[in-house]
Write a structure and sequence with these properties.
Layout: E1 14-19, E2 22-27, H1 35-51, H2 55-61, H3 65-86, E3 91-98, H4 103-110, E4 118-122, H5 127-134, H6 143-165, E5 170-179, E6 190-198, E7 205-214, H7 219-240, H8 244-249, E8 260-268, H9 277-286, E9 292-295, E10 301-302, H10 304-307, E11 312-317, H11 325-338, E12 345-346, E13 354-356, E14 359-361, E15 367-374, E16 388-389, E17 392-393, H12 395-407, E18 411-415, H13 420-428, E19 435-440, H14 441-447, H15 459-468, E20 473-477, E21 479-480, E22 487-488, H16 500-508, E23 512-514, H17 520-523, H18 528-538, H19 549-558
Parallel strand pairs: 3-4, 3-5, 11-15, 11-19, 15-18, 19-20, 20-23
Antiparallel strand pairs: 1-2, 5-6, 6-7, 7-8, 9-10, 9-18, 12-13, 13-14, 16-17, 21-22
Helix pairs in contact: 3-7, 4-7, 13-15
Amino acid sequence: MLAERSLSHHIPRPVELAYHGGFARVPAKQPCTKHLQADRQQRQWRQASLSTGREGTKRQRVITHSQLAQTEQMFSRTAKKALDINLNPLWYGVIAEIGAGQEVARWFFRVGAAAGTIAKSVSAYDMTISDAAYGAAARYVTRERVQAMLDSEYLQCSLTLRKQRGDNTCFFAFADTVVARAFGKRNECHGWLGIKFQAKPKQEANTIMVHCRMLDATAQQQQEALGVLGVNIVHGALTYGSDHAAIISYLMDDLNRSRMEVDLIDFSGPIYRHVDNRFAALRLVQKRFCDAALFNPQGELQIPQDTLRKKNVMLVRGRFRPFTLLHNDMLMGAAQQFFCGPGATVVGKNASIVAHGDEECVYREDTLVLLEMTTNDMMEGGDLLDWTSDVGIQEDAFIQRIEALSTMGYSVLISNMQRYFECAAYLSTFTRESIVIALGVPSLQQLFKESYYGDLPGGILEGFGRLLKFDLKIYAYPTLDPKTGELLTANNLKVDPSVQKLYEYILDRGTIVAIDDFDQQLLMHGDVSQEVGESIRRGTPDWEKLVPVHVRDQIKTLGLLGYRAFSTAPATGNGLSNTSNGHTQTPARQTAKT
């Protein structure tokens, strides 16, 4: 009779467990703590394995019913997807993985019937061998690298097998390049995954590219999650084809946000000509596969950790319906105090900390200006984001808004973050430099309403505690009191008496800074965005003097906001473009400052 099979006391050997639709892996029963007994049992197990042909049967006996149910629940969808692909004779291809084992290929091999699907699996871990196969590279975990892997493996597979089976086979190549958790380190763990495939035999190939951040604490857990994500990508591409919405919907099956974040997906090829990747990025945010999507001034989706690395950030949140001269004035006023002018000097050994007079400042070229729009119901003048509705997202309105802000030369952040401390936490994940949030005094008042923090156990104190730990600054743009006409600034603002002392403390510590460079004539218009919208609906040209010229031209060209053609007057406006060089230039004001 076989003794109970305790394996090595160092690492329990995984057990392959058969169940309906595929296989799953569970840990073996915990070994005895006494090393000699464990070694003796291991020798007995090996001897028995050689003398009997019932190893698989014996293995299954140590698995409890609860373990079986848990395993089936965790991995049934992933295993079924891998088996579905293996059993379809239409698909045949290559899997190439670098950086976190061969976890994607392992799923296809473990469920069986992989010989009909996998022509080759490879991992070129050595840099010299990798360069010989895919070309030299300065960095190995990049979009360019995974694209080179896809092109090389797909070309080799399709050319080699084209005569043999090209008439009735859709070839594919899956590749990933990943940096997983290093032993004893807390490094940023992320990866690029992609698939290049034919939708029909002999057709031109299509490509899906995905970037992910791996959030598990151990390399083993990250490898497991990466394998699941890879299977979802392969199954989605080969099963749903041109239905990009379905591919996105099932992208995180058997995963959750505590383990994996997908912040970019890109579709290209003949069957995806109709796909706007900006809207695909919005779907990732909407489904909470990531916290935000970042677009550069050209409207192209970016990886936050690449774009924000070592950058100071100045962020403005709003609806931007449309972007007006008031938004621009807020940015320029904040920039006047945040950016360094002539005569700035470096403080100490840190070149990112610069002094201008008695205050610290940053260089414009080291700073990214972000305009943020949120998919949550954020208040601005009492209105909600107009490109969302009860039935979902209005795709055209969203794309038009992105294009309008891009013409101004700004980077745009689309997020699902409701509170400012969530924005601060998100930005601090990717940069350790200075962060400034510019907002209007009405929004600042909203921050000090206790009802705003009703769902936090610690209420308003918890909210500001989480905000202040990032050592950011809030630049407050003034407004006119709608009842008295008094100028309200951060310095004379009165909030609810119960939190007035808290406000004064945060103001005194320098977290809240009053913007003192502004155009008071613009303030007299009140809600400028509302005035622009009403003027356009009435068919009067008054709105043109309240928006930058690029926004004016786009509204007229695309007929936005219900625009109808009528006689126009010239409009002027400047923007604090992310594509500009050198120090900030303050635009000419229409009136003197107060």
